[in-house]
């Protein structure tokens, strides 16, 4: 399967969003490109903050890092979720692992013109490590986690009507 170093931001986002989605994603089942919501998110990402250079962290890719060592992520949703915050924490964890003392993450929501700043505290660092362990546990399961209630699955790229 995958190691701690292979866990990327998408894995952590899916851990919070839907463990079943994480389990399927880790096995190469990735129909995201067929989903209109995902394509909209990619368009928002591609047309926002175009002057900045993405930061490749191996299994993770941060949208950009500013001169004050705050990581920035552009999101297509209307507002913050636990999954967004966890993904930002993970990027800070990855930055620190390569020797960059990240201060935290700024989440940008262009649709609502809002930003949310999340400092990378000692508690956030512990949670980031726990998230990696939880993702690895979920991925290692022999069978997929149960589906979430239907109302949570309707917008999912893996949902069949």
Automatic annotation (TrEMBL):
Pfam family membership, one? Cas_Cas4
Superkingdom classification of source: Bacteria
Q: Which InterPro entries does the entry link to?
A: Dna2/Cas4_DUF83 (IPR022765), PDDEXK-like_dom_sf (IPR011604)
The answer on whether this UniProt entry bears the keyword Phosphoprotein reads no
Q: Which residues form the DUF83 domain?
A: 9-157
Question: Which ranges of the sequence are coiled-coil?
Answer: none
Alphabetical UniProt keywords: Exonuclease, Hydrolase, Nuclease
Task: Answer whether the UniProt record assigns the keyword Transmembrane helix to this protein.
Answer: no
UniProt GO MF annotations: exonuclease activity
The molecule here is called CRISPR-associated exonuclease Cas4
Species of provenance:
Actinokineospora auranticolor
